[in-house]
Design goal:
227 residues; globular; Rossmann fold
Length: 227
């Protein structure tokens, strides 16, 4: 695996954001084996495990040392906030009141993630999608936020198909993917084709609205269930 640190953007969401994004409750996650893929600097794994849940995070960035990622993450948050401040009209300010609150939330997620990575490194697995180093049906639920579909300009249709196939191999119940738009807020152009293909393979597929919307039009997820 080879990825230079300067290519990594290490920013993440909080545990609370994940519950809102994926329309989940803490009770629903209890007794489930959950994979956050890819997880970045999200605090979901850290907070969930402290609450007694069984969550593993995976990301290509985890090939790097936690301290280096933490320092990179602080710089990335600073740069990201500068962008958001300049382009405030591209975002929906319901979940966050302003850029200051957004920045503090991102810093907290990074700090929680870093602390947990240092204390419990086995919960953070370096992976390079579309390949996952896990056994068949190793997890009950996979949550995938702000990666698939979002980077349609960099990851082609074949990649998305391969990544979904691999996720479905290592999950026993369902995969949830958010959002269903690209970086410009447009619905992923091959989404209907992917849904049709998944249904033809016997999966139950549903587009479901989320309570969470920060990027404009990024307010729905794909729920893929094994029958």
């Amino acid at each position: 695996m080879s990825i230079t640190l300067d290519r990594v953007v290490f920013i993440g969401r909080t545990f609370e954001e994940y519950l809102s994004i994926f329309q989940l409750t803490e009770n629903e996650l209890q007794q489930k084996r959950v994979l956050d893929c890819p997880a970045g600097a999200c605090s979901f794994t850290a907070v969930a495990n402290k609450k007694g849940m069984d969550v593993t995070a995976c990301d290509i960035a985890y090939v790097h040392q936690a301290k280096a990622l933490f320092e990179k993450g602080k710089l990335d948050i600073e740069h990201a906030m500068e962008h958001v401040q300049k382009e405030k009209d591209l975002y929906v300010w319901d979940y966050f009141n302003d850029v200051t609150e957004l920045a503090e939330t991102r810093k907290q997620a990074l700090a929680d993630c870093y602390e947990h990575m240092v204390s419990t490194p086995d919960r953070y697995q370096a992976v390079t999608l579309p390949c996952l180093p896990f056994q068949d049906h190793e997890f009950d639920i996979i949550l995938s936020a702000h990666f698939l579909f979002l980077y349609a300009d960099r990851l082609d249709f074949v990649f998305h198909q391969a990544a979904l196939t691999e996720m479905l191999r290592v999950v026993s119940e369902e995969v949830r993917i958010f959002p269903l738009v690209d970086l410009n807020g447009n619905r992923y152009e091959h989404l209907d084709e992917i849904i049709e293909d998944l249904r033809s393979q016997g999966y139950s597929v549903e587009e479901r609205l989320s309570d969470y919307e920060f990027q404009q039009n990024a307010n729905s997820m794909l729920v893929i269930k094994k029958r």
